[in-house]
Amino acid sequence: MNRSTTNKDRRLYDVIVLGAGPTGENVAERTRAAGLSTVIVENELLGGECSYWACEPSKALLRPVLARADARRVPGLRRAVAGPLDVAAVLDHRDEIVFHWQDDNQVGWLDSVSVDLIRGHGRLDGPRQVAVRTPDGDTVLLTARHVVALCTGTGAAVPDIPGLDAVRPWTSREATSADRVPGRLAVVGGGVVAVEMATAWQALGSQVTMLVRGDAGLLPRMEPFAGRLVADALREAGVDIRFGASVASVAREDGDVRATLADGGELAVDEVLFATGRAPRTADLGLETIGLTPGTWLAVDDTCRVTAVADGWLYAVGDVNHRALLTHQGKYQARMAGDAIGARAKGEQADETTWGAHVATADVAAVPQVVFTDPEVAAVGLTTREAERAGRRVEVVDYDLAHVAGAHQYADGYRGQARMLVDTDRGTVVGVTFVGPGVGELLYSATVAVVSEAPLQRLWHAVPAFPTISEVWLRLLETYRDRHPPGRS
């Protein structure tokens, strides 16, 4: 494959993909499988944020933490895992998971699926036009016969706080790629990145303080009991959680980061991590050349076409469209969008029916997510609050996971909770949340229940194995049945 570039190099493709993270790679693979010539443009490492600075390295840091926590709850293993974690081994394994921040294997995969690669920064230069500035200073001008797909993802959103630039704060990238354990770490935020990184670095030896603005608790977008159980466990592990704490300014003095809080208090730490949300990477994509506003999220239809652009040639897939900021959802969107692009390029009608072959219905109805803390949190579909806001009539069914026989086998003193939301008009499950050790492996079954819209009467026939934690499904269904015994009007 010819990857050379020259000044005034012009190339024509059916599909141009900007961004080679998991989303962009999946779009490119699907359009190439449809017979469309495809090029992918990437300015950093192929594999994107997830592979090198998010999902993969964070879970490599968290896995030994959670495995040790599980083992300590099992009689007969406590003494065997009583000591501290081998920090060097954990960090070495993390480095291996991210291939030491080298992307040779990803390049080989692109070759195997016959997708061209141009390294450099790509910007729109008018309809169906992309200009790529390469590392050697040349420019490659690309034209798309059919589609340009923006798959550039998001970056950390850091608040505008006095002194922040001089402090050089951690974001999720630094938190997942650090080569040493800070003695004292402040984590600003209370969402998924904040709780996962607090879990990891506390277990690796940091004295962690969480500064959470407001009093909504941790994991505010999930069921409230999830945040409470995670907060309880973090405090028991030694994390100092301060709610209603806002950072007013920061400064670095004699090696310390000194954070001044809005209430006048101060905190001195070695590093400060801002886990305060994500922003779309659209500021330097040339959106202004097609009449769009740089730096904004890109609104799309259910096949990921940008709704503000005529003729349907521009797609925005993955985090950049703000539908569901999760790697697996971006890959899901990519499969739908890639197949839709292939169909439309052949002059076929895209299948835009609900749960159709080309629409990302699950972005609305059934987004699954696991938070890899101790305890784990796994959720899919609606929360109680979301159902209420949407005007859905739901019945909340709760069950204490500690009463499931499988939980007794899993751990001594198991603590957890399960919640199922039943659509009372249709008799189907529309949301599930599990909190407890090992519940991440329950999530796919919950996702299938929500996506399939299986009636509760049918779910009775899905028999869980004994003794496993999945028996909680039976207990949830029994709890609902006991409230609505047969024959009661």
UniProtKB/TrEMBL annotation:
It is an enzyme of class 1 (oxidoreductase). Its EC number is 1.-.-.-. Gene3D superfamilies: 3.30.390.30, FAD/NAD(P)-binding domain. GO terms for molecular function: oxidoreductase activity. Residues 367-473 form the Pyridine nucleotide-disulphide oxidoreductase dimerisation domain. Keywords: FAD, Flavoprotein, NAD, Oxidoreductase. The keyword NAD applies. InterPro entries: Class-I_Pyr_Nuc-Dis_Oxidored, FAD/NAD-bd_sf, FAD/NAD-binding_dom, FAD/NAD-linked_Rdtase_dimer_sf, Pyr_nuc-diS_OxRdtase, Pyr_nucl-diS_OxRdtase_dimer. The keyword NAD applies. Pfam families: Pyr_redox_2, Pyr_redox_dim. Residues 13-328 form the FAD/NAD(P)-binding domain. Its cofactor is FAD. PANTHER family: DIHYDROLIPOYL DEHYDROGENASE, MITOCHONDRIAL (PTHR22912:SF151), DISULFIDE OXIDOREDUCTASE (PTHR22912). Belongs to the class-I pyridine nucleotide-disulfide oxidoreductase family. This is Dihydrolipoyl dehydrogenase family protein. It comes from Streptomyces coerulescens.
